[in-house]
What we know:
The complex is a heterodimer.
Chain A: H1 2-5, E1 10-17, H2 19-32, E2 36-37, H3 52-71, H4 88-143, H5 145-148, E3 161-169, H6 173-183, E4 189-194, E5 199-200, E6 207-208, E7 210-218, H7 220-232, E8 236-238, H8 244-300, E9 304-306, E10 311-319, H9 323-337, E11 344-347, H10 364-372, H11 385-400, H12 403-418, H13 420-425, H14 431-438, H15 440-457, H16 478-483, H17 491-494, H18 514-547, H19 551-582, H20 600-609, H21 627-667, H22 679-707, H23 710-730, H24 738-779, H25 796-810, H26 814-820
Antiparallel strand pairs in A: 1-10, 1-11, 2-10, 3-7, 3-8, 4-7, 5-6, 9-10
Chain B: H1 2-22, H2 27-33, H3 39-47, H4 64-84, H5 90-114, H6 119-122, H7 144-151, H8 158-161, H9 172-197, H10 199-224, H11 231-237, H12 247-254, H13 258-266, H14 269-277, H15 287-302, H16 310-334
Helix pairs in contact in B: 1-16, 4-16, 5-9, 9-10, 10-15, 11-12, 13-14, 15-16
Keywords (chain B): Hydrogen ion transport, Ion transport, Transport
GO molecular function, one term (chain B): proton-transporting ATPase activity, rotational mechanism
GO biological process, one term (chain B): terminal branching, open tracheal system
Amino acid sequence: MGSMFRSEEMVLCQLFVQPEAAYVSMYELGEAGIAQFRDLNPHVNDFQRRYVSEVRRCSEMERKLRWVSGELPEPPPPPIPSRRMLSPREINMLEEKIDYIESEIQEMTKNARNLKSDYLSLIELKLLIEKTQTFFQDHSAQRKLSATVQIYNNDAVFGHLGFIAGTVATSRVPSFERMLWRISHGNIFFKQAQIDQPLKDPITGHELQKTVFVVFFHGEQIKLRVKKVCFGFKATLYPCPATYKDQQEMLSGVETRIKDLEMVLDQTEQHRRLVLTNIAGDISTWMLAVRKEKAIYHTLNMFSMDIIKKCLIAECWVPKSDLYIAQKALDDGVKASGSPIPSILHHVPTREIPPTFNRTNKFTRGFQTLIDSYGIASYREVNPALYTIITFPFLFAVMFGDVGHGLIMTAFSAIIVIYEKRLSKNKSDNEIWNIFFAGRYIILLMGIFSVYTGLIYNDMFSKSLNLFGSSWMNVYDSETLANHTSLELDPAVAYTQTPYPFGLDPAWQFATNNIIFLNSFKMKLSIIFGVLHMAFGVTMSVVNFNFFRKPEMIYLQYVPQILFLMLLFWYLCILMFMKWTMYSATATDPTYGTSCAPSVLITFINMMLLKGSEDSPPCKAMMFDGQDALQKLFLTLGFLCIPIMLFGKPAFLFWQARNRKRHEVGGERGEVPAGAGGGAGAAGELLITQAIHTIEYVLGTVSHTASYLRLWALSLAHAQLSAVLWQRVLRYGLARSLAGSVTMYVGFAVWAFFTLAILVLMEGLSAFLHTLRLHWVEFMSKFYDGQGYAFMPFSFAAIIEHDDEELAQNGAPPEKKDEEY
Amino acid sequence: MKGCIFNIDAGYLEGLCRGFKCGILKQSDYLNLVQCETLEDLKLHLQGTDYGTFLANEPSPLSVSTIDDKLREKLVIEFQHLRNHSVEPLSTFLDFITYSYMIDNIILLITGTLHQRPISELIPKCHPLGSFEQMEAIHVAATPAELYNAVLVDTPLAPFFVDCISEQDLDEMNIEIIRNTLYKAYWEAFYDFCKQIGGTTADVMCEILAFEADRRAIIITINSFGTELSKDDRAKLYPRCGKLNPDGLAALARADDYEQVKAVAEYYAEYSALFEGAGNNVGDKTLEDKFFEHEVSLNVHAFLQQFHFGVFYSYLKLKEQECRNIVWISECVAQKHRAKIDNYIPIF
């Protein structure tokens, strides 16, 4: 957990690696995923780099593998995880193998296609003969053509009428017919019949809708033109005998050929499947190896080459605690290559700012992401993610407090957490689901905390639980109770004076002033939590000042800031506690009776405006003696802090610079210190930035304190919404009648749906966003710099995950890609 | 007012189109491309641009024609996506753009059949944006009248073709006349259509179309020198929607040589500048290139205004220019002929 507190210490390393050893070393580093390499040739084009031919070779293998896996009948099984590396020799063998497999499958596919298109034309011919028979019969019956005119085969025209028969795509039939009619000036006779059974395109495998047609015409000239049109419309022409007898003969011939072909097709298909299933198991493993190799060469391209020493130089950031892994990877590389010259790992002292690296596990990752999406922490800055683990779900729960809704949320996330292994295996493309899955632990904690705050608010689907027995009792007799719809309970009499052990007293459920009471309670609570949260944030800056060796900033910035916050706003909170404890219904002194409790808000406003408040006997405007003077003192001290915040830092820097100058002038007399001229401008800029920061902080404390009131507002909204849902929907179903039971049947569905959709999902989302805001703005603005950049190590796992995502997008069929544009 | 409701129908597509436009290669990309040693390098570099993995699935010895086909395929997919999602009047506007490709395809096919080339060889050369159903049966026609009556009467080009119907045979000269008559009718119809849409679309498109018309008139004139085309016939081919209309066209109709054409262009500031810079010497840019440059600048200007259809036209034209550029560079790279590799026309 120690690493959560601030980001890891990074070391800039220079690696001197022999080219022979580089491959193995990089493989080990890629598996470990601990080094972020810097591009040492930023000005060199992609295609002018050293290992570009290797990268290209890998891309080519990848393309072939992709093609082959596209030919597989089902998606290949996931790769067998193994850390074993393929040596360059093995890769070469693999390349040959892939080449061979690709050409073999290509050959087979081509053969299969030829066979299939033969098959298709035979089937078409068969259908054509079957269909045309009816044409000729129609013909003879209706027009008595058979008696007067002989119909001749198109191959040998003896007399007057010729015909052409074939098939054409159904969608093109109308324009085909029109065109034929146009070119012949209406001197043709066109018959068509749609083929009902769908045919398969041999190349794409899509379904084809085709229509059989026969065109009768007169004369050789028209025949030529008809043929041209048929060609233009991609119609397939078939020789079709004119007499019934010939047709029957041909039909039987075709049918035997179809049978033969079916057998051959079956065999080729089996053979093909055999070959494909043989490689199906390996293909993912190969793909993985190729991708790793490609990634390695990509990284090697970032190295610079020492021409004389014949070794590769790389620069990378490595977490200090992982240095030994990097060293081991280098040693392994040397061992594997058998080179006598060892690789050298060399720390380079640098003034450059290292990347920020927070080691996370599956639990903390979600919280770290919340912080990182605001801004990556500056290097070694205090990491708010650690505290967010508790404060985030807690503040969420303050807004979302409801035992029922919390339980739903807990159950949902608990299921995901329990089955997380199984769920993470089959990745989903659903973005919303992925968000839920990534935030499962956040949701789980939010759910648990919501149950807790729900118990505090004593609120379960807008109803209270009477777990310990209320501390309020009935003081009226039955007659009074019968005559009044509402009665007032005097706390002095009706209250047992021992509070309800945990959370809100269930008696408030029936009270008509329930909302007024809850508002006052929740409002105060929000302010108290808010001030504490902010004070915590301000205090975090001390940790940063200490770590970055700026102790003076504690006095110049932290102390005035925290004083300002405490003297003004924590005092407000103290007033609240005092009001809660000092005033009571049973107090003997009337000045501390319930009716005399002063409004904390008015007191605070009067304090700010320096307005005295008048006593109205027997009550006193102030809670204790000397309060007025104390308030004035606090106010003066608080406002005295502002000039310290404003001028402290610039004055200190100025003083420091002058000291240094005096030092320098004393040491090296006569030399003009460089940059002395720019001092005035820099000082002005510094003053302006400081002024902005100060104004931001001072106004910020006011506006941020008010901002925490959203805790109350959302909590109120949530409670009221769930109350409305109960009263307007489910309560009607509770009537004791037949209608009630029917209403219940429908009403419960409606209630359950809205509870889930609106109260848990929508309200949950809204409360989540507000919590996020409270952390990003109100909490983190007090200390968080967020100017860092993330550590992105060279890691196979990350690269392959990224590739998979890309592949999922690019691998989609073209129509789908079209949608994405 | 038009601007307010423009986005209801065409806002999404305009946004999409502007997004596509941002993917057009920049000068820096071209500088990298011309450094390529082989087509594989070119492929590698294009992978880093908006083209992404469009060549990733091509087997390794790349040819220029593959690159050309893939570039065109990508452009056509984008354009057809826009067309499929468009509603009136944008859909008609986009259809109008495709008509010029149809004209080109018809002429290509007729010329091809005239030279006894099999139609199956010609079809792949046709631009996919200009394909229509009856296209492949075009070789049944032997005369313009037949061409009209049998093939074109069902296509949207029919109204443009009415002027070309004559009983003459289809010979090379006639085909050229048909092409120019078709184009004349097409530019004029497109011009009128844009005028009818009005607003910014008219402002932007009429400017571009007027230039196209004038360019055609000038090129017809220059190409007609030394042919048997009579001056009267030539004058009939001039599109009458440009800035040269009517005085410039009348002067062009009288021109006898290149110098006279240049003298006519002198009267028009933008065209005289084009003639100034053009020459046939080594190192000079040809008049054609000058025209292309001017076209590119007009099309780039179209993106400076919002809520009009001109962006779709301009995007297509710019992208076509880009394809020409890439193909030019690839040709130079493939043939190891680097002297003229810089003759591409940069867009941004």
